[in-house]
Amino acid sequence: MIQPLEVKSAILLVEKALKEGADLVLLPEKWTKNIEDVPLVEFQKLAKRYTAYILPGAFEDGVSVITPIIDDSGNLKGIAKKIHLFNEEKLRLIPGNEAVLFTYRGIRFGILICYDIDFPEVARELFSKGVEIILVPSKVRGNGLDIWNEFLRIRVLENRIGIVNANVYSPPDFPGRSVAIIPEQRQDGIVIPKVVGELGSEEGYMIVDIDPLKYMYLRGDRLKEYVKFTVKEL
């Protein structure tokens, strides 16, 4: 999880995380004002040098809100598009119509961009396709962060999957506080959303080690309980 203030520090923070052994790096939504400011070439070079994936955030490209996916060879593997546009985005952008997943080092990752996490059916569909960790770049204001974290926690509980969220740090309105959450079963059998990493309100980064095998049985049990149904009107 990376919380940069500007382009120069973003490059430095990404490389620091990679040097410390990060396999996948996630940046926030709209941490730069324009997609032209995103140092994609530099990120591609870093991804190749350290054989890691980099998701450089989510940005408006003039048509949609997109998240580029840079693979461990430095190539653009693909893009994910924001499915649920937020507020004024709806007036000038086109929403995506598909959720994106990919497999890296044996782990199934899905991508949901900010407001997408508010809609449980998207996370549930990714879960049904075997996704183990959902990556969420976001731009959430401080006054909405408490309810935002509730959405993250609930998606973890609903689907028994991990979530890694990189949120914008741009004071005073956007406080960062990026977070990683996984499901964990307590000794009494109750499954809880456990925070395994959280940044504060400052520029920085954090490496979080998530092993989906630790909650694989929880996912398996929940998957068995997942049934298709229809609605009957009387």
From TrEMBL:
It comes from the Archaea. Residues 10-166 form the CN hydrolase domain. Pfam families: CN_hydrolase. InterPro entries: C-N_Hydrolase, C-N_Hydrolase_sf, UPF0012_CS. SUPFAM superfamilies: Carbon-nitrogen hydrolase. This is CN hydrolase domain-containing protein. It comes from Saccharolobus shibatae.
